[in-house]
Write a structure and sequence with these properties.
Elements: H1 3-30, H2 34-64, H3 82-109, H4 113-138
The structure holds fe (ii) ion (2 copies).
Length: 140
């Protein structure tokens, strides 16, 4: 597979993950009960906006690169209870950081400077989400 096709495929995996996260956070915010749950609702609903921005950017970029963006979300687990939810989210955010960094390196190799930097920025967003989740988990 050519390098560009490989990048498009990787970005489509990222996109499916973003759509999955938008749905997962919306779903989890509805299932977050109690005092800590209220706080989690606020945070997740705010983070959904970031993930939606990531999904929008990836959709545009995949089309720019000549690919066909996915519209199906990646499926996700639905653990019960705040702590299990947050631990899943933390694990997923960390995976997103790694994927964006890997694809940023691919974009760099292809000389796609803007894409490289945007993917790094998105990796930083996800790392920020992970940091916030870690703080929440510590308090549970
Ligand atoms: Fe994201
Ligand atoms: Fe995130």
């Amino acid at each position: 597979m050519a390098r560009k096709e490989e990048l498009i495929e990787g970005l489509n995996e990222d996109l499916a993950a973003e759509w999955g996260t938008v749905i997962r956070y919306t779903y989890q915010s509805a299932k977050a009960f109690g005092l800590a749950g209220e706080e989690l609702r606020e945070i997740l609903q705010e983070e959904v906006q970031d993930e939606l921005g990531h999904a929008t950017f990836l959709t545009d970029v995949i089309i720019d690169l000549g690919g066909e963006p996915v519209t199906e979300p990646k499926s996700f687990q639905k653990p019960e209870g705040l702590k299990a939810m947050l631990e899943l989210d933390l694990q997923m955010e960390k995976g997103d950081v790694d994927n964006y960094m890997a694809h940023s390196n691919m974009a760099d190799e292809l000389g796609l400077v803007e894409l490289k930097m945007k993917l790094e920025e998105m990796a930083a967003d996800e790392a920020g989400h992970a940091r916030q989740l870690r703080r929440l988990i510590r308090g549970l």
